[in-house]
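just leaving the lab so this will be short. what follows is a protein written twice so to speak, once as letters and once as structure tokens for the fold. can you read through it and tell me how you think this chain folds. anything you notice is useful, everything is just below:
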Amino acid sequence: MASSATFGTPLGWLRVIEAEGRIVRLQWRDGAGSAEAPPGPLLAEAGRQLAAYLNGGLTDFDLPLAPAGSDFQRSVWREMTRIPYGEVLTYGEMAARSGGVARAVGGACGANPIPVIIPCHRVVAGAGLGGYSGRGGLETKRRLLVLEGALAPELPF
């Protein structure tokens, strides 16, 4: 059975969903929503790690993840978790690592069910940021890359 907890963050309200002891989804919300039960240990830890990351005090998430997707998508998402904090790879570089093509990598990025924790924001186009399907689109992607030091705040894209 799945459970969830919603956390207020600098990116807005984030709802984290876990099932069978693993994080399965992260969603942007318009607000805290209806009353939720107090988070269990895994969701509380996810909230703590999200807060620490967004405050610049955490570079690597250490949470059990179980994103639902195709074999190819899951291979791309695994590769994303290997991109070091503060670094980026292009869609083409990710395609070479995951055995696909850049367009398919872009599709996997857009389908990422656990953004931020699975850092799809670290995958960029060769001549720009590319896309970002999380709330706020490219501005959110830019904020995350600036937070990590991968992008200077004044650089336009």
Observations:
- The longest strand covers residues 2-9.
- The chain has two domains: 2-54, 71-148.
